[in-house]
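sorry for the late reply, my laptop died twice this morning and i had to redo everyting from scratch. anyway the thing you sent over, i finally got around to it. pasting the sequence first so we're on the same page, its 293 residues, then the predicted structure underneath. double check i copied it right bc i was rushing
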Amino acid sequence: WYQLSAEQGDSNAQYYLGTLYEEGLGVEQNYELAVDWYRKSAEQGNVDAQFVLGGCYCLGDGVEQDYSKAFKWYQLSAEQGDSDAQYYLGFLYKKGLGIEQNYELAVDWYRKSAEQGNADAQCCLGACYCLGDGVEQDDFMAFRWYQLSAEQGNSNAQYLLGNYYRSGQCVDQDYSAAFKWYQLSAEQGNSDAQYYLGLLYGEGAGIEQNLELAVYWYLKSAEQGNAEAQCSLGDCYRLGYGVEQDYSTAFKWYRLSAEQGNPAAQYYLGLLYENGAGVEQNLELAVDWYRKS
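ok and here's the structure:
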């Protein structure tokens, strides 16, 4: 039915036929044909097709990646009020992709999207206020937009809101609230939130101290490459906090963190080399890592 209707020029049918080809539903998956039908629909002004076509050009799905064309289609969709297109248009302005970088216009489009309730745009608008990008720096406005985004489940906003409560910036310091937001973010896989959740468990801040759970969350974060978590996990294995003491495993995690430039990890890596703990003693390498630190 979609095929017949699409061939007769129905823009909605063209859009849905494109989605079927893109997702391989009822037809063999074919990104190029998906793009063809999205384009037919978008050229008739279909707001959803314009947005999706912008995404195809942004990611290079079914077409050669082209940020200028992505910008064109996102703009057409955004001007019709599509909040996702408005968000991505703001992103392209912020990064200078396909258009000259313009923080003020990035903020304008983020705001249009955010005011429609787009959680990603709310988080990015919060970041603009936090950094003073395209708008006067304002931590309270940053907090406001992060909170709106976090309440909708945006993991990055949840992590950043946790930082506000942990540090007491813009709000009364509240480790329990920090724990709540870090946990929500960490459970979505945010490595920074996982690290700080481990930190709160390790310190017993906002939650009863639990070294085993501290190690659990440090490991989740460390396995994603978080240098702070890798260093903290090294500390746990070196000291036997929440795990059986194991200098070899401590060495492993310190080295991963040290190679990312973490100065504390570089120091402890030097210490392990100096003492021959978990690794063959090597005073030259000890000095090298001490110097780096």
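The CA atoms of residues 273 and 281 lie 5 Å apart.
thats about all i looked at so far, will dig more tmrw
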